[in-house]
């Protein structure tokens, strides 16, 4: 299982996902507002908004919250968010890519830079690390009650790259170009992912000693806790030994 997916599984087991539910909702609401402002408030005619609403439902966000977020985007007092990315290296040479949605670029720059400095990481120039990550579609699905053998055949026909099961979690990975087709096929099969998104998957991962790796993950956690940060990607290999140390 890929490092990012394995770390997500560990956090679910630890209950961190429940503890950070408010943060998860904040991220989704920002994405809904951004999507609605960009392409209109009707999910039927706005694919990005439709996906954001789908993820909101997957996270069990109340319907009222979703509707308020859409109204907030298209109303007179609409909030404007901008997408800002940061790239750099954590200690031990681990590449880190940070995606933000913010209404105050200066605040985000200062906050992310402060976290990098605190943990001995170094910021790079925009675009300097893009070659280390591929944009791929990633679907997270609860495996319980799913006919995995049948679904895997359907997904292979849809053009996926990976079909991974870890405990009760199924992760499907595909090329960015077939993301829409895979999402449509899951909808046709009546399967609602907990999350469906385009993510940055490392081309190669890097293995380092356990103590250094734990420091890197503390750095990643600090970034994820920042209010303006939407996603953090890295190329640290989450080995079984590290996974055990992090649990």
Please, could you describe this protein's structure?
The structure is a single chain. This protein has 247 residues and is α+β, with helices and mostly antiparallel strands. The chain has a domain at 3-74: Integrase, N-terminal zinc-binding domain (Arc Repressor Mutant, subunit A), CATH 1.10.10.200. It has 10 helices and 8 strands. Strands 3-1-2-8 form a 4-stranded antiparallel β-sheet. Strands 5-6-4-7 form a 4-stranded antiparallel β-sheet, with helices on both faces. Strand 5 (160-166) and strand 6 form a beta hairpin. Helix 3 (21-39) packs antiparallel against helix 4 (47-58) and helix 3 (21-39) packs across helix 5 (63-74). The chain is globular. The model has no long low-confidence stretch (mean pLDDT 89).
DSSP E strands, number: 8
Low-confidence stretches: none
Q: Mind telling me the CATH class of the domain at 3-74? A: Mainly Alpha
Largest pleated sheet = 4 strands, antiparallel
Between the first and last Cα atoms, what is the distance in angstroms? 16 Å
Note the run of SSEs as H and E.
HHHHHEEHEEHEEHEHEH
Helix-and-strand structural type:
alpha+beta
From the spread of the alpha carbons, the general shape counts as globular
SS field, number of helical segments: 10
